[in-house]
Amino acid sequence: MNCMFSSTTFYLYSIIHYICHMKTKYTIKDIANLAGVSKGTVDRVLHKRGKVSQDALEKVNKILEEIDYQPNLMARSLKNNKIFSICILLPDPNSDPYWLPCIEGIQNAKAEFMPFNISLETFFFNPESTKSFLEINSIIIKKSPDAVLLVPLFFKETLNVIEKYNASKILVTTFNNQIQSKSIKSFVGQDLIQSGRVAAKLLDTILKKGDIAIVHINEVFKNAIHMQEKEKGFRNYFEEINGSKYKIFTCKLKHPSFKKDLIDFLENHPSISGIFITTSKAYQVAEVIEQIDNSKITIVGYDLLDKNIKYMKKGIIDFLINQNQKRQAYLGTIGLIEHFIFNKDISNKLLLPIDIVNTENAKYYTA
Amino acid sequence: MNCMFSSTTFYLYSIIHYICHMKTKYTIKDIANLAGVSKGTVDRVLHKRGKVSQDALEKVNKILEEIDYQPNLMARSLKNNKIFSICILLPDPNSDPYWLPCIEGIQNAKAEFMPFNISLETFFFNPESTKSFLEINSIIIKKSPDAVLLVPLFFKETLNVIEKYNASKILVTTFNNQIQSKSIKSFVGQDLIQSGRVAAKLLDTILKKGDIAIVHINEVFKNAIHMQEKEKGFRNYFEEINGSKYKIFTCKLKHPSFKKDLIDFLENHPSISGIFITTSKAYQVAEVIEQIDNSKITIVGYDLLDKNIKYMKKGIIDFLINQNQKRQAYLGTIGLIEHFIFNKDISNKLLLPIDIVNTENAKYYTA
DNA sequence: TTTTTTAGTGTGTTCGAACACATTTTTTAC
DNA sequence: GTAAAAAATGTGTTCGAACACACTAAAAAA
């Protein structure tokens, strides 16, 4: 067995703080020798395969209690030599470029675990069609992968397919949006209420006077819960600080009358000095603001789309909040891979940082 | 050999976009069979161990060109069964709590690669003593680890020890601050000039009028280059935008006269509406500002120390910039581990995001 | 008592890479 | 032409876990 020692050394001029992160490594053979049985018996005890006498069981368990046995996962993986297959399902980036960074995140995860036998397959569904979501899920089920990572855009349909996956004993984890159901074992994403609070704090810091508009730009089937939660957190922030000096208006816009409606809204509310856009389409608002040349309005929006960054550089959008899709997909994938290869637990809720982005630090989040 | 297929499927209602990230896996035995030689010969070719005829060499190389051979790292690691030892050297967190998160980052890295034979040893030096830095480095050299990750606080001494490490064929990488020398093979940290620009942009966004003070709080041996570069970036931002409306003052403070000097400075410059503190001691400035009850001054500082966050929650500090020490140490460690285990290249310069932190997203960066 | 069953135990093989070593082939020397 | 040296090639073992299989011993059935 390999053994490492931990020590603290004193030296002439300063105490050397020395932290050793190594542990003693035991093998099954070591345990067998210590317990006075054969490795086969130890193996049977470890895997609870039965056919072990009470006497031998006790001898092995005694040793197992004394030492901290950590199986060599390299050896296990080499022996099993199983190709773990993971299917990933997300909305088609052709329908919405928001999803494009996810592919990069998945590829990064794959690259990182290249030496392992991992099969990753990415599927896209039409974010405006529950039918497409269901269909592609049934295709994935037919492939019977070991696990599925998906974006559960549609509540009912998601619960539906998860039931089917469970029946086929396929592990399912989710990212992007959180479905409130005990059938969801794992979620990677952001706390949208907190996200709204971050936006609120930003506007609260910048604005000196005037009122605030929360702008929802509605798209077909872009789940409204997202926007609602962000608004909830946003308003919640101002309710908490007693005596908010701002009036907060909610403005729901929809294409094709979007532009006209926004201009009307701003004309009817000349006191507006700050706008919080709850979707990634802040550039659409910025476009209008630029045209009506209202440079005194502070804008906070979401996501590092090229168009958003363009208007941020122009000084029309002040802050963007990074929803970190790439990292969501990356961590969702990594979580499954490490679960299969290293037997790691899958965290049932992983909340990513809500990054505040301005012109000067944008490049670090887009790269 | 294991083989996976890539395909594109058309479906009734929508095209299924299908990306397969799997590659065919060959073994040495496969190559031997394909080339018509024995696995020993293939092994000799792969490791350039010689004793191979021209004929056999060509046969094997032909196959190697045709296929993409990726050695099974589990098998390699299992056979070699080498314990890679990495020593990490950073300033003592007892001298400056700034370094505390680094330990967590190192432990995370260790935990992530627990199944591998990695020995991590962390050493601390006194950040105010070049002697301590040199001494502990010589202790590390005596342990002859496979690699060293260190914080090169002192320029001359760092070049000195790197030479010794090179002589002992010990790989050295650095984090926290960048030493400008070709002998540095790898650096993980932040672009300090860009960091100053982020702060500048923040104040530019918030301030409506008044002037700005750059405050350097000098500590013994806290390398001045850090502060200089941040100031450079900060001023550079305002120089670039033609016609900055702010006057920018630089204010160097030093204990023990710190408090008095700061109060004097503010009294002499009543126009100051924004302060940029280039070190992690923003709380010390905030303390004074709170006492003189000047709530109209916007403060931007560095690092998520408890005291800084406390004053941010009080509304005295507006933004903190996260220098991300934890992640720096984490990525520096990961880089070395992956280099040894997966033969990955070590990136010679890894610039981390410059995170903008307010009260609402702070918890995601401290956790 | 002998045979069959079954519980209990240990041995041997596999995964893929690495390398020691044995074997075969070729070259050089005499 | 034969012996010795050198070059080339193949075989076998190891790493640690997993599991098939063979084996022993005791219990049950004949």
Question: Could you characterize what this model shows?
Answer:
Chain A folds into three domains: 63 residues, Orthogonal Bundle (434 Repressor (Amino-terminal Domain)), CATH 1.10.260.40; 137 residues, Rossmann fold (3-Layer(aba) Sandwich), CATH 3.40.50.2300; 131 residues, Rossmann fold, CATH 3.40.50. In chain A, 44% of the residues lie in helices and 19% in strands. In chain A, the strands form three sheets. The first copy, chain A, has a six-stranded parallel beta sheet, with helices on both faces. A six-stranded mixed beta sheet of chain A has the order 10-9-11-12-13-15, with helices on both faces. In chain A, helix 1 crosses helix 2, helix 6 packs parallel to helix 7 and helix 11 packs parallel to helix 12. The longest helix of chain A has 18 residues. The N terminus of chain A is likely disordered. Chains A and B meet through strand 3, helix 4, helix 5, strand 5 and helix 6 of A and strand 3, helix 4, helix 5, strand 5 and helix 6 of B. Strand 3 of chain A pairs antiparallel with strand 5 of chain B, so a sheet runs across the interface. Chain A binds a DNA duplex (30 and 30 nucleotides) through helix 2 and helix 4.
Instruction: Average the pLDDT over all residues of chain A and give the rounded result.
Output: 89
Could you say how many structural domains of chain A there are in total?
A: 3
CATH superfamily of the largest domain in chain A: Response regulator
Determine the CATH topology of the largest domain in chain A. Rossmann fold
